Amino acid sequence: MTALEAVAVHLPPRIESIEDVGARIGLTPRQLRLFRRFHGLDQVRLDPDGTLPDLLDAAVRALPELRGNEHRVRYLLHARGMPVVAPYPLNPVQELAERFGLTRAEVFTVTQQACATSLLAVDLAGRLLAEDGDPSALALVVAGEKTFTRDAQLVPDTSICAEASAACLVSADGARDRVVSYVVRQRPEFDGRLAEDPELLTRYQREYQPTMIETLRAAVDQAGLNLSDIALLLPHNVNQASWRMICRETGFPVERVLLDNVPAVGHSLAADAFVNLRTATTGGALRPGDHYLIAAAGIGATFSAMVLRH
């Protein structure tokens, strides 16, 4: 059973208010009021002077469990929200493998589910390791991107993006943080540029909540549980308002949704799942044996949810 062996996070030291970011990318005062007052955004973590390899490097260096186990890493996956992150012929994830001596690893990126790709990468890593047949083998999943364009910085009417990064060691079988279920719902009718198609954006916003709820319930049901059995829900950090509405609709206590990183860190594309898991584990929000639920949505559109046992 796929398990998360260790998770590390890097939060860039630079903190910018959403007003500062908004001035740079041309947001109106009305848009900024929406983000702050309704969506609960406040600031984002950014590293304007750093490169993508530096961002990923910092997360991997924060993972002491990798040291001495580099030879066990069979797969290195970069879970990305954006399809393109560097100009040809630069290859940030290959450069990362070389920096850390991951000479036995197959190296590739996963981008197909936008900001939900981190959960896909964990599932894919677990399946590859299971097929590999070596019980000592590991996969390293990294996530984190530069907000190098306006499209990478902004989710229209929804969120402002940050540059946190994360690294996660995955095994085919482990004692804790074991994957119990994984569900994906894809809605390709919402593929398109939301910023340039108001009608598409309106339809997506209307369908977002019911589709996310259906995905969450399907993952819990697949795990043989009820929502009441979930100790903690780790959301993607797009905003607080959408999760409060989901809680009202489902009856799930909003106090059991980890929303602290929405105003403090911002939405770090595919890295949110690991950022929130690290916050939960270091803050003592999860006890051994607890079931928790990770949720994510990616523009395009993909909705996914994963139940794990701590």
What does this protein look like?
The chain has helices spanning 18-25, 29-38, 52-61, 92-99, 117-132, 150-153, 198-222, 241-250, 261-264, 272-282; strands at residues 3-10, 14-17, 43-46, 73-79, 106-110, 138-143, 154-155, 159-160, 165-171, 178-186, 230-234, 291-298, 302-309. It is globular, with a radius of gyration of 18 Å. The chain folds into two domains: 3-171, Thiolase/Chalcone synthase (Peroxisomal Thiolase, Chain A, domain 1), CATH 3.40.47.10; 178-309, Peroxisomal Thiolase, Chain A, domain 1. The longest helix is centred in the C-terminal third of the chain and has 25 residues, at 198-222. The model has no long low-confidence stretch (mean pLDDT 96). Helix 7 packs across helix 8. The strands form four sheets. A five-stranded mixed β-sheet has the order 1-9-6-4-5, with helices on both faces. Strands 10-13-12-11 form a four-stranded mixed β-sheet, sandwiched between helices. Helix content is 34%, strand content 24%. The protein contains ten helices and 13 strands. With 310 residues, it is α/β, with parallel strands linked by helices.
